Amino acid sequence: MERQRVGPECQSQQKEQNWIWVVAGDLDAYDSATIRDIGHLRWKIENNAFGELTQHWHLTHCSHHHPAAVVALLWIKIIAFTLFHAFAILHGKTFRLGLATLNEIRKQLYGSLLCGQPVLLFSG
Q1: Contact between residue 4 and residue 11 where contact means Cβ atoms under 8 Å apart
Q2: Residues of the chain scoring pLDDT < 50
Q3: Other beta carbons within 10 Å of 58
């Protein structure tokens, strides 16, 4: 299904798409449906990770424009993103109990860094 805006209204239309998946020889043991599913899972990771990095972790803004600084800041943000998620998922009781989302925890942590007041997010 594809949604298009026609004047003031949105209309849904059926849309057929044909995709060609090119894979390495290492995947010969898998059928085409499995390869398609792997590709879609990769897209999901890519969309979720990069979507969150750009919307909540300021990935689009680079305060320094020297090529080495751009790469260093990119790595710092990606490492911070990965470490935060790993730690929050493994040790964040409020997240595991469904009491807070990762975005809420990120906002609390960011606010505590700005204000200089520690916040207790990961209790034992």
Answers
A1: yes
A2: 124
A3: 12
